[in-house]
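Good morning C.,

I know you're traveling, so I'll keep this short. The sequence:
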Amino acid sequence: MTFAVLAAAYALASAALAVMLTTVLDNGTWAIVLAPLVLLPLILYHVRRAFAPMQSLFRALTGTVASYRDGDFGFGLAWNGTGELAELVAAHNRLGDALRDQRLALVQRELLLDTMVQHTPVAMLLIDPHHRVVHGNLAARKLLGEGKRLEGESFDAILDRSPDALRDALERGGDGMFTVGDADSEEIYHLSRRAFRLNGRKHELILLRQLTAELRRQEVQTWKKVIRVISHELNNSLAPIASLAHSGSELLKRGQLERLPNALATIEDRARHLEGFIRDYARFAKLPAPRVEAVDWKRFIAQLRSQVDFTYDGPSEPGSGRFDQAQLEQCLLNLLKNAHESGSLPRDVTFVLKHLPGLWRIEVLDRGSGMNEAVLANALLPFYSTKRHGTGLGLALAREIAEAHGGRIALLNREGGGLCVAMSIPD
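The tokens, ready to paste straight into the viewer:
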């Protein structure tokens, strides 16, 4: 609108000046040419004045965009005009408001996350590719730095002044548990390590969680359960033995010797059951450290198949693995027998072997009834059993053997019915 007014004023002024110059110069052609040239500086001055606010606005817009790029959203623009420029300024201000609100919400979330990280009882350390501490929360400072800041320190230097048990746990690699202190002041910790990339560089997050109090509570509950289970089994065996022994004595007195062998056979059966029950508990409690050696998988699988039937799914020439042959054989025999007892057809019990980068994955599959969520959550715990005469040690022993080898075990229901017991051990 301003440009149109200036153009009209310029045209009128040029026409008026041309009339005046025609009178002076007595030449209409030269008057028409000279009139616009005479007025040109004046019109340029007015054009610059008319467009000065818009130029100022454009400079302000450029500055605000640069500020937004730098993360500064604490201001807006004012424009008294109308039209498309007013709409542009309003849209720009709305963008600034939205960015400012998002920045405020992000800052609040960062403050909340930092508060949670700093005050969690789990010691957290973030290590950069050069093995220096990027971040250590309050628990980490208390545990490893005597309350001092750890940021910027060499993680190796921190380990040099840390307990030997922590260094040993880190050298073993992966997650695990370790104990610090002596029998009178023993503290138990769980170590968890996770590698990830941050800003394109590899970092490692180390978590140290103190489990002493929690494990003490679980230990008491476990012992109570052990006592209940053992008492139940002892009563189930000793009560019939005592009763039959008394009955046998009465049969001898009456001379009814033909019924005596049946009573003695029942006594023997209950005594052997009790013997097996105690033996299973002793085996679980005294599981030695695995003696890892190279074992030919093909021969190992053939030995398993000679004791229990299954379908093999894996490479025909799998090579060799490194594990304790006796322990892994006992573990897999328990799993394969459980698969047969699940209600699955024998042909549906499958032993799967896969070689993955850095580990062997073993799966025992069946098409039985599977497990509900409650059983899945507790099946690997010692003394937990859904079987009437089960000890609750088969899966717990399998878990103990897998973890002693540096591996893991997991249970999951299969699509179409049945259970998958998946175990991984290092290559």
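Safe travels,
E.
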